[in-house]
Amino acid sequence: MIRERMASRDDRRLVQLIVRELVPYARMARPDTKWTRKELLERLDANTVLVAVSRRLEPPRGFLAYHIRDRSLHLDMLAVGREQQGRGYGSALIEAAERAGVAAGCVDAKLFVDEPNGRARRFYARRGYREERYVKEMKCLLLTRRFYL
What we know:
Layout: E1 2-4, H1 7-29, H2 37-45, E2 48-52, E3 62-69, E4 72-80, H3 89-103, E5 108-114, H4 118-126, E6 130-135, E7 140-146
Parallel strand pairs: 4-5
Antiparallel strand pairs: 1-2, 2-3, 3-4, 5-7, 6-7
């Protein structure tokens, strides 16, 4: 089940997911990467955040943070707990965000993925995301998927 973030209930787990599943790849790409809990919460607050749960009030199994700008769906962060990966939570989250983007008139979706995160790169490739360019100073790839309306 996909629902919107309930900050008071979800944020502790969302920060754990970021620290466990995303930060290690960011540090492989950019060893000086540092974020405080406050900065991570501000980043969540700046986005619409969807969470994947097995039942409505259970802790999140994963989440996706996104925003819409200039007719593009910008996927900021997607993380699923390692023990929950491969169970469809990531796919359900991305499908829900893409539906919201199309409904809002977006023509494409964009995201950055850290170069060392091969598993994420394969996940997005299976969903039709293509490498648009490599950003050398960030050691990450900009991936894009066009929506055919």
